[in-house]
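Take a specimen:
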Amino acid sequence: MAAGTNESAPRAPRRITTDGTRTLAVALVGLMAAATLVWNSTASAFSATTTNPTNTMTIGTVTISDNDAGVALFTAPALLPGNTATSCVVVTYSGTAASTVKMYVANYNATDGAADGVVIGTWLNMQVQIGTGTCGAPVGLTNVTAAAPGDTMTTVSGKTNFSNGYGTGWTSAAAGNTRVFRFTYTLNASTPSTAQGDSITTDFVWEAQNN
């Protein structure tokens, strides 16, 4: 075309560069990956639980009592050689823990009335037996002390705590259990005159300890 004319030269066609195509492809892949990530995140929310409810822990109890109502088993102010007597007490276990029950003495005191070295504990015997039922109708009595006439009170006086106390055979005490304890004292028929005025006072104790 001649110089000075008003026609413009034709424009070359626009082309999409190779770099632009790559950028578009990367963007599409990124969107697809994001969509997949969201789907996986939603799927991972599935869950399940199970519950073991209302668990309770309570400390057990060890409780023992007797029916003596604070009254002594024996009050014998004028014993004579050969005298004997029997008394009885019912012991009840009401704890929740299975326990072993033993018997012993406390506050034991022997007085030598004539101050001559002869004490009543040498001549006074105590037999203790255990059974079930009632004092009026005991069942299955067995010996806690030696068999009749029992142990001397000097021997009994050495039983002072759970460790060295008398085993009663009551080794699985459970709530509501009762046992009859029958006591029989006997003053030896050969007790010498020098024992006159001697006396003994003591408490009988039952102790339960959980197994």
Notes: Residues 18-43 form the longest helix (26 residues).
